[in-house]
Write a sequence for this structure.
């Protein structure tokens, strides 16, 4: 399996939080914004290239899109922790408030990836999923590291 | 922040009078400079905590307070179960029972310095640190259960520690009331290979030298003298605590939503102590406390083995082990009568004063050691709980320096390699798998820990006993 192609209008950024780090993804759809938020999560840990060698499937459900974002990021954090993996490719499908996704990544190589920190959990702080005035979806929250 | 919004009670006490939905006042302990530099969010978050049901007396914020999740980091709040009091997963945080331990090596700097580089390399090899590091301990289901109920006593029984350590750990090394059925399979899975790992972020193992003594009488009881070498470890309950925090934060949020409770901030998600989910969280959180106590005991033993290799006559003894992310059941005097309260400390250290019954005999006359981590370049402090801490903030004090700059800003300002080289020139050896991680934790990104502990002393929370300067820092 290979990673999906990069989609247009999609981008991510970090924003400052007192002790930790804020992540924000942008995209044409909530699903694309969620994919970009996941890339921002990975970038909090490492800027090194990550090979899309293995694929993992995850699903989650929540009462609304904002809680779904926190659940989604926490699912990734769990897979990073128990599999000792980093992920660089994300294909997210959202129906209502149910999410199914494929993650592509590889095992952590400490020398090559030199991970800067470990994500402990996604928080409800600065949590926002919304369609901005220009039609672009954004998905953001602070991650405890 | 804007000081005109407070009632200034004295030089270090800033009071937010109850307003809106606040049930009690909020009190921040800090000197004028610290409060001026403090994040505006601390005001907002302390005021929000004061709205929670069953809160007793006041919400307190310590001199190192900064923007946290729901609760400010450096926040203290006590709740009475008889008055509808709550327990909050956000009020404890993701890294349940994150804390600090300091061990006395019995060595002097003159003995250690000739071997400083080799010692740093060896500690870095023996202490699994950072993302992707692996512990050598793997727990099956039965051992996981034994660890979650036994804490540091479990570690000692398995040969990872010494019996004499236990009285120098809060709760004697074992937190009572852990409920195995409340710990999810996912939380256990996350911990299976994490025992005896340091983690990353601001977690560290440091070899430090006693630089200054402020209180010779207490220092003598703590067995600290200038140029003594100590080992300090800062870490918590690893993946298990993070997963329990994540799961209960969500569950408490959904329960509150279903019950129609309006939360000022979603991160304040909480449940009545007497409710089923509240009791379940307390059982899981106490298991996570045991996980943290066991983990620090194991790491302490790893450090002992390294020291034994280099210094056969060294016999490191534990000074104390304190947690700063917990909810504990404690008896405190409120308006002249003792009350049993659920005290949340989020980034705040328990600081029992002299003669507290829970302290080991050797320390009881002077009070509890309060261990304060600074940045890797500036140093740390050992304080002792003040007699006045009880009336000031349910016997609590600060826990660290607190960040002055975000990770984001630190990364733009410093290069990790340069930080390592500059510190090496000053005699401080850093060992870390990530230069970016070092840059994010650069000394300049932290507030002046000296100002924080001076304010804690002035406010009557804890008194300074010794300042420690780093010699070696292993960072995850």
């Amino acid at each position: 399996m290979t990673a999906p192609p990069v989609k247009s209008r999609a981008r991510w950024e970090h924003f400052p939080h007192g002790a930790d780090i804020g992540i924000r993804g942008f995209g044409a759809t909530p699903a694309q914004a969620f994919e970009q938020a996941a890339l921002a999560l990975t970038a909090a840990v490492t800027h090194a290239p990550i090979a899309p060698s293995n694929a993992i499937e995850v699903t989650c459900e929540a009462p609304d899109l904002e809680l779904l974002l926190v659940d989604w990021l926490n699912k990734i954090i769990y897979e990073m922790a128990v599999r000792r993996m980093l992920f660089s490719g994300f294909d997210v499908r959202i129906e209502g408030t149910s999410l199914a996704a494929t993650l592509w990544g590889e095992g952590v190589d400490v020398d090559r990836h030199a991970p800067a920190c470990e994500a402990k959990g996604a928080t409800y702080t600065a949590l926002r999923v919304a369609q901005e005035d220009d039609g672009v979806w954004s998905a953001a929250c602070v991650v405890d590291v | 922040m804007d000081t005109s919004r407070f009632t200034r009670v004295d030089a270090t006490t800033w009071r937010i009078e109850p307003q809106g939905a606040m049930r009690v006042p909020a009190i921040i302990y800090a000197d004028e400079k610290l409060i001026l530099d403090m994040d505006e969010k601390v005001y907002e978050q302390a005021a929000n905590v004061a709205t929670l049901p069953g809160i007793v007396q006041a919400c307190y914020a310590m001199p190192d307070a900064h923007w946290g999740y729901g609760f400010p980091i450096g926040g203290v709040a006590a709740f009475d179960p008889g008055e509808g009091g709550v327990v909050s997963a956000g009020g404890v945080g993701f890294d349940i029972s994150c804390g600090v331990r300091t061990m006395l090596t019995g060595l002097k700097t003159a003995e250690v310095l000739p071997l400083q580089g080799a010692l740093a390399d060896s500690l870095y090899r023996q202490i699994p640190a950072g993302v992707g590091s692996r512990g050598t301990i793997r727990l099956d289901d039965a051992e996981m259960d034994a660890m979650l109920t036994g804490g540091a006593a479990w570690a000692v029984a398995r040969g990872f520690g010494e019996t004499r350590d236990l009285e120098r750990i809060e709760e004697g090394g074992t937190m009572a009331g852990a409920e195995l059925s409340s710990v999810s399979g996912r939380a256990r899975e996350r911990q299976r290979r994490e025992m005896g790992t340091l983690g990353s972020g601001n977690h560290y193992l440091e070899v430090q030298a006693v630089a200054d003594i402020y209180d010779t009488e207490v220092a003598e009881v703590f067995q600290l003298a200038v140029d003594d070498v100590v080992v300090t470890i800062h870490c918590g309950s690893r993946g298990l605590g993070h997963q329990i925090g994540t799961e209960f934060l969500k569950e408490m949020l959904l329960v509150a939503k279903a019950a129609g409770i309006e939360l000022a901030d979603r991160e304040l998600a909480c449940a009545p102590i007497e409710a089923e989910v509240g009791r379940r969280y307390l059982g899981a959180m106490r298991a996570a406390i045991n996980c943290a106590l066991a983990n620090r005991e194991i790491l302490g033993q790893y450090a002992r083995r390294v020291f034994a290799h280099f210094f056969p006559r060294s016999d490191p003894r534990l000074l104390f082990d304190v947690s700063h992310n917990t909810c504990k059941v404690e008896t405190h005097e409120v308006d002249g009568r003792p009350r049993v309260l659920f005290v949340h400390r989020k980034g705040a250290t328990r600081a029992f004063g002299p003669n507290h019954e829970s302290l080991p005999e050797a320390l009881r006359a002077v009070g509890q050691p309060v261990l304060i981590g600074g940045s890797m370049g500036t140093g740390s402090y050992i304080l002792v709980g003040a007699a006045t801490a009880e009336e000031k903030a349910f016997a609590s004090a600060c826990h660290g320096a607190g960040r002055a700059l975000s990770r984001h800003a630190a990364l733009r300002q410093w290069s990790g390699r340069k930080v390592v080289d500059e510190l090496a020139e000053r005699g401080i050896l850093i060992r870390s798998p990530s230069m970016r991680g070092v840059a994010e934790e650069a000394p300049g990104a932290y507030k002046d820990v000296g100002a924080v502990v001076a304010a804690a002393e002035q406010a009557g929370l804890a008194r300074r006993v010794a300042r420690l300067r780093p010699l070696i820092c292993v960072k995850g």
